[in-house]
Sequence to fold (337 residues):
Amino acid sequence: MTAVRRQQPDRTPVWFMRQAGRCLPEYRELRERHSFLEVATTPELAVEATLMPVDRFGVDGAVLFADIMLPLDGMGVPFEIQPGVGPVIADPIRTPGAIEALRVVGPEEGTPYVLEALRLLRGELGGRAAVLGFAGAPFTLACYLVEGRPSKDYPTAKAMMYGEPALWHRLMTKITDTTILYLKGQAEAGADVVQLFDSWLGLLDAGSYRNYVQPYTMRIFASLKGIVPTVHFSTSTVQLLEAIGETNPDVVSVDWRLPVDEAWRRLDYATGIQGNLDPARLMAPWESIAAGADDIITRVGGRAGHIFNLGHGIMPRTDPDKLSRLVEHVHEGTDRG
Ligand code: CP3
Fold:
């Protein structure tokens, strides 16, 4: 949280996206007994999964075990998470009627289990790590809602965006209103910081981003100012970096496609920065992982406001021991105590 506030912590904080997932044997074991959605919607199990990487890796952030799709429960959209596929919506949202029918409700009503899990987590975690809440960003959620399943290009969603802009804006407004309530609720329930995942943003050019997406992201961050600090996440968005900075989050997460110092400079140092080791590098021998981490630390050069992370989620085949070693390496390499 010191780094989020752009002050200098004793050592650079580290957490990983998807740190609680399938690379952990203890998570796989939990999943043998419970489905993914059962874990995510049962507060005791969600807290158990949240704490696994904190205990094992010594990371500085505990990411609430949940999913960006959960608010769809409150919106009245049935979905499944199919193993090895991802989120699937049997009846995608493609018509004015379907968009009108989407409900905008707060998490007390829509996803009470998320709030309960955060309250439990706060108690069990103590001061060991910061609590990270999160939500899917409107564009990424709209991709899933309209397309109905994971896709490389989301052509149905983008066709609505380009071809039926009024409908698109109506959909984005509903998702945005829901997301603001969802993230405010998480902050009240104990999240120290919230991250907005815009995982598919890299599909857009800067002009379309500014027309169809940026106003909504901006409204979310503006609504949370003074309530809870925010992190913007995306990947493959070198073409959008300045425009993302304009949405005014506290921290911008960047992937490995730009060196971290160059990305930060392009953001005019107006926000903190999170990143940016390539998760695939964790498949390489330790010497290469350490060299990648050292390069990031050198490029940051002690400037306050860096959170060490990967550029995207941990890959399932990653050796968890390498992640533990990486956390220790970054902590030791940045020790200012
Ligand atoms: O440590 C953590 O980060 C856990 C919390 C978390 C999950 N999903 C758990 C999960 C977070 C932060 C997410 C975010 C999420 N979910 C995103 C944004 C992050 C990103 O990677 O870009 C997206 C796009 C989703 C949608 C989603 N849910 C996908 C693509 C998948 C994976 C499908 C698969 O099996 O390959 C899910 C399911 C999911 N969410 C899993 C986990 C641990 C795997 C489910 C399992 O146990 O099989």
The pocket of coproporphyrinogen III is lined by residues 17-22, 31, 36, 63, 65-68, 81, 83-84, 86-87, 134, 197, 199, 313 (CB under 6 Å). Residues 224 and 305 are 19 Å apart (CA to CA). The mean pLDDT is 97. The two ends are 17 Å apart (CA to CA).
